[in-house]
Write a structure and sequence with these properties.
The chain is mainly alpha-helical and 259 residues long. The protein has one domain (9-258). Helices cover 73% and strands 3% of the residues. The longest helix is centred in the middle third of the chain and has 40 residues, at 70-109. It starts with 8 loop residues before the first helix and ends with a helix.
């Protein structure tokens, strides 16, 4: 069985290289696929498969080798890496908002010391944050958010060609604004639990002042923990609308950044 190779093999390899760099950089930076739980071989195969899709679907892929200097080649490679990493960082804001919410709730209810290793980032986070992270991951996959990222990646090649290295064409302002969006939505998710636990702590303070002989520290710790777990269960019904709103905001920023 013979394999038909292109007539200009170096040109074909070069046309595949630039999209592969952008795709692989995005795969390494994505919050779900780019984690330490996914083997490097799987990431490499997935990057190559997405590159084949991009080359067959997108425009502005072909680059002439004769018109490119060494400096231009280096700048193009750096630019492709920056675009891919920014794609992953933008999607990270969705999940980090839930991590922030979990950390705030854990500190309020007294479970801040219960740490687990986060496979997304490789650092220790509270168990409540890990629970919210797993929930956000399942919700994002259920709403086909990963397919939305792939469509945005393909669209980025139509807007920002593979032979481009104009660093001003990418909207960095919209990306920086996602930092405030991440913290605001994290606070919105944790706000009901914050208010309820704050009222509980104030009540414990009044009881301690009125009856100093009671050991309210031991009782209050247990009550705060049980109340925090109950509040997490009750407020889960309000998480989905916030998750949808946050995801739409982040995806809109993603398309505006590449547009």
């Amino acid at each position: 069985m013979m394999i038909n190779l292109p007539n200009d093999l170096p040109q074909f390899v070069f046309n595949m290289m630039m999209p592969f760099i952008r795709v692989s950089a995005m795969i390494m930076a994505l919050p779900i696929i780019g984690t330490q739980l996914v083997p490097a071989k799987v990431k490499l195969i997935l990057s190559f498969a997405l590159t084949l899709v991009v080359v067959n679907v997108s425009k502005n892929i072909e680059i002439s080798l004769s018109d490119i200097s060494m400096l231009s080649l280096v700048l193009m490679i750096i630019y492709q890496i920056i675009i891919g990493v920014l794609f992953g960082l933008i999607i990270h804001t969705i999940f980090q908002a839930f991590v922030i919410a979990g950390q705030i709730i854990a500190m309020q209810m007294g479970l801040g010391f219960a740490q687990l290793v986060d496979p997304q980032n490789g650092v220790s986070v509270p168990a409540v944050s890990q629970f919210y992270m797993m929930m956000a991951t399942l919700l994002y996959l259920a709403m086909n958010g990963h397919l939305y990222v792939v469509s945005a990646l393909i669209e980025s090649f139509n807007v920002i060609p593979a032979n481009s290295f104009d660093f001003k064409s990418f909207s960095y302002t919209d990306i920086l604004q996602l930092g405030s969006v991440m913290f605001s939505y994290g606070l919105k998710i944790a706000l009901p639990a914050i208010v309820a636990l704050l009222v509980t702590n104030v009540a414990f303070g009044v009881m301690t002042k009125a009856a100093p002989q009671f050991n309210l520290f031991t009782i209050g710790f247990s009550i705060s923990m049980v109340l925090g777990i109950a509040l997490i269960w009750i407020t889960l019904a309000f998480v989905l609308p916030l998750f949808q709103e946050l995801t739409e905001n982040v995806h809109t920023t993603l398309f505006q950044a590449v547009g």
